[in-house]
Amino acid sequence: MHPRAVVLLSGGLDSSTTLFMAREQGFELHALSFDYGQRHRVELRAAKRVAKRAGVTSHRVVKLDLRGMGGSALTDEIDVPKHRSVAEIGCDIPVTYVPARNTIFLSYALGLAEVLGAEAIFLGVNALDFSGYPDCRPDYIEAFERLANLATKAAVESSRPISIQTPLMHMNKAEIVLKARSLGLDISMTMSCYDPTSEGLPCGACDACLLREQGIAQANQS
Amino acid sequence: MHPRAVVLLSGGLDSSTTLFMAREQGFELHALSFDYGQRHRVELRAAKRVAKRAGVTSHRVVKLDLRGMGGSALTDEIDVPKHRSVAEIGCDIPVTYVPARNTIFLSYALGLAEVLGAEAIFLGVNALDFSGYPDCRPDYIEAFERLANLATKAAVESSRPISIQTPLMHMNKAEIVLKARSLGLDISMTMSCYDPTSEGLPCGACDACLLREQGIAQANQS
Q: In b/e form, how buried is each residue of A119-149, taking b as 16+ CB within 10 angstroms?
């Protein structure tokens, strides 16, 4: 029997690559996505495509009620910033930051991991994120892992630890693109845009689009 | 201006008493409840009554989708245990344990605390709970507090820490009953039962009912 992993899957390039990396490591895959009133719900369709392609054992889409909290351009009527330089991106905490989002996502993943008896939770945070988002940094991930192993019945009764795996942590976008290709992930199936058009196409101008395009360009030069 | 607190409020005796204790400490109160498909939704009506009586500044009820995860008598079709002795209650992890529930609740509270600029999150866990539920123990609470202060924009940008307050941690039920009375909380407004009747009355036989009744009896003798 393969060990089980819960993989947080938004449908973007990073989480999709993470899913394929978990597969490469031999885990039985249980994908977990969230429908939290994000503007870019087209991401969820991408998540379904990618999960199917990866051959996951299960894929849950959990509805989350984050809009009542306010405070983010991804869930509220704040404008998504466009056409920023790559130097500007990641210097500060962006308006697209959703308060405590990764903590909420990881908490659900922890509950699911406990129910499934999974031994790992995979999360696609990476080096480009953690300068801007506090909950993408290595010390945050370590703190969550510590919490997870105090919070769960499995940890208490059988001392079977749950690990939080962030295989992209120290990769740049070009490296992620190359890794995705090496694992057979067609990255055109993924959707990273914060503000897609009504036809579901990427805007090409938000931070996520710019970082992705730069990563693809750099990967194509290597 | 009073400092703000987010108070997790189920509508049970413990969280209601915690709300009144936060009020006693001079906080501006922001109550947070969850509708997570629990059998005892009558709790939410109690939460609304208690929040109003406490004079909270806001009360949010967030819909959570926990049923898909399974694994608990509170959200699934597992029978709630009845007529256990008080000695049996709290010796093991009960079937009413919802995987990662407190972690999910605290994560939402953290997001709300960040949006509101609150400096404290109050949670009504207590000594009778933490022997049975792993996520009610002091070391778990400390680990969450540590995580909270790595996860949030406020902690990163202004180093304003968020504290997780558990004022009932070392109190028994009788002490909680006495404290509630001393603060003017009419505990008949609260609802602790895991399995109320269709008329919304407590069953009188689940662990929560038994602990509560024993606490009231002891308080009345003191």
A: bbbbbbbbbbbbebbbbbbeebbebbbbbbb
Interface predicted TM-score of the whole assembly (ipTM), two decimals: 0.80
Burial of residue A184, with CB atoms counted within 10 A of its CB: 0-12 exposed, 13-18 middle, 19 or more buried: exposed
The reply to whether residue B93 touches residue A63, judged by beta carbons under 8 angstroms, is: no
Please report the pLDDT score of residue B167 as a whole number: 97
Domain that holds residue B18: 4-221
Chain A residues closer than 8 Å to B157 by CB? 93
CB contact under 8 A, B100 and A93: no
Determine the pLDDT at residue A19.
98
d(CA B170, CA B128): 9
Give me the pLDDT at residue A158, please. 65
Answer whether A137 touches B (CB < 8 Å). Answer: yes
Q: The pTM is what? A: 0.84
Confirm or reject contact between A58 and chain B (CB < 8 A). Answer: no
Helix (H) or strand (E) holding A164: strand A163-165
Does A154 touch chain B if contact means CB atoms closer than 8 Å?
no
Alpha-carbon gap, residue B103 to B54, rounded angstroms: 25
Contacts of B70 in chain A (CB under 8 A): 115
Q: Does B115 touch chain A (CB under 8 A)?
A: yes
Min CA distance, B136 vs chain A (Å)?
Answer: 8
Residue B203 is part of a domain; what is its CATH number? 3.40.50.620
Pairing of strands B58-63, B4-8: unpaired
Chain B residues whose CB is inside 8 A of the A102 CB are 151
Q: Count the domains in chain B.
A: 1
**Joined tokens for residue B76:** 């699934």
Encoding tokens for residue B30?
Answer: 């922001």
Cβ atoms within 10 Å of B83's Cβ, excluding its own: 11
